[in-house]
Amino acid sequence: MAFAKAKQGKYVLRFDDTDLERSKQEYIDGIGVDLDWLGIKPDEIYYQSKRFDRYNEVVAQLKEKGLLYPCYETPEELERRRKIRLSRKLPPIYGRESLKLKPEEVKAYEEEGRKPHWRFKLPNFESDPFKTRRTDVHWDDVVRGPQTIDLASMSDPILIREDGSYLYTLPSVVDDIDMGITHIIRGDDHVTNTGVQIAIFEALGAKAPTFGHINLLTTISGEGLSKRKGDLSIRSLREEGFEPLAVESLAVLIGTSENVTACRNQKELLEHFDLTSASKSSAKFDPADLLTLNKHIVHELEFDEVKARLEKIGIKGEDAKRFWYAVRGNIDKVCEAKNWWDNLEVNKTFDAVSPEDREYVHQSASLLPNGELDENSWKVWTDALKKQTGRKGRALFMPLRQALTGLDHGPEMAVLLPLLGKNRVLQRLKA
What positions does the domain Glutamyl/glutaminyl-tRNA synthetase class Ib catalytic occupy (predicted)? Predict the structure, then answer.
């Protein structure tokens, strides 16, 4: 998305839902919710499950050209052949044995109930497909620079499963051609796949798009993030209360030569975005970095930007705006404001003051300024207490903070005092 917007292009969202059994509507809806939360608005949306007729048409063309052939091996048979090749110190690639099958052998397999999977015949030979030769595919990667893949080092890829469903490879190439895709930015675990896809583009008489392969995120210990474990899922981050721009800032800038800073909007983020600055090594994700970015963003959020969210957690009324500006500098996430709201609003007392300071706290009530409390009241009050008791610094301020909030730290007491109101202040001082 960032690359498309930076180049004034279009961002296409395409759902690879050709595996109908695994592609459930709830997953598709979840992706839509995640993107909407991040503020990502696709210019075009496509579903591969609605384009089977087009893929079938291309399959017929490849079969007619002899570039797609049926294979009847079971997974166990393929694994056995792979081990045999390894024991002979040969590359563990498919040997195209199915091309040697006689009609009666194919018939026997079909009578046995076997259904074929279909492989694309890579152009890595002159005339005899069983005598492969080095065949280099080159492209200038916008992230990694010049890349080369030798097609002779690879197995012919499976494009269609035994049940007739498509793997992502062929539909993606067909879609890229039909939709006029100019750039594909993806993880560097797809570098090898790119060699195969370029071969399919050329087999279909089309020019391949420009590819860019970005580094993958790992945990701080260097382990790969797992979708199955829910590592760093957008949904989990949203539910944990992170700001979308904190997530976007980290996702776009981590692993680049740019400083990972908290951007206030997508326009500002795009000004920092440059694919060529991406490192070729994996980027390590540290949750502490995300929390730091989030904190910086939250501390600058205006009341109007969070008003609706605050109302959902019960923070509303005439004091809500003043309250937000009082506490935002002391929270890491917007949802944490609820803790301070409850602290100030609920009629309760705290047992946080040390025994030696209790008498001082009780006596302090008598010097509380008359009338309604405002942001000047704290200074007037503590000045009077300092003069009468001789206390200063921490000994003067901390017992009062502990009595009024139950904590040793937090927002400025000058702004908390009027939010508490005189009745609560007196109640907590005399507890």
Answer: 2-290
